[in-house]
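> example.struct
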């Protein structure tokens, strides 16, 4: 049975990180859909490249049962979160993450994913790798300086450069 992954795409997204996930899923025949954390399916990478996602995070709500895992593709998470925290798509993002966690599904991400997961109220007491700049934003999880952490169903990489350490373990869990 093929597993299916929902990929949350921050706007702007770190293209290097996003494409590591997508290429790995494609090469290993793991089905996925991309969901913009934005009002539209149009997003950009941190370097300004325009991308089109499959849908928006608002359309992922109530569809959690269709997926086995959720990946948070980080970008400029901390400044954008501070800027957009009151917008409905950020509230939808936190709600979707919480729903996936409540169903015991796999959560994965890099850079500030620990901050976002923590902000969604998931992972209290769990170890999570986090970018050094995001460490102070983690309140209930246990932020680490390690390149990657796997704590139960939560897979985190410190930066886009350490996603490569998480991906083989994530693929094993998705098989």
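> example.seq
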């Amino acid at each position: 049975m093929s597993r299916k992954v929902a990929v949350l795409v921050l706007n702007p997204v770190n293209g290097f990180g996003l494409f590591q996930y997508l290429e790995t899923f494609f090469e290993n025949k793991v089905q996925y859909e991309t969901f913009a954390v934005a009002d539209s399916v149009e997003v950009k990478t941190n370097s300004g490249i325009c991308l089109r996602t499959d849908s928006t995070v608002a359309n992922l709500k109530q569809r959690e049962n269709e997926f086995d895992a959720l990946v948070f593709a980080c970008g400029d998470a901390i400044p954008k979160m501070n800027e957009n925290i009151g917008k409905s798509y950020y509230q939808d993002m936190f709600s979707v993450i919480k729903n996936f966690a409540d169903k015991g599904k796999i959560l994965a991400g890099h850079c500030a994913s620990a901050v976002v997961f923590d902000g969604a109220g998931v992972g209290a007491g769990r170890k999570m790798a986090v970018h050094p700049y995001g460490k102070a934003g983690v309140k209930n999880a246990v932020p680490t300086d390690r390149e990657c952490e796997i704590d139960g169903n939560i897979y985190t990489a410190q930066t886009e450069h350490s996603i490569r350490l998480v991906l083989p373990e994530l693929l094993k869990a998705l098989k």
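> remarks
The longest helix spans residues 88-102.
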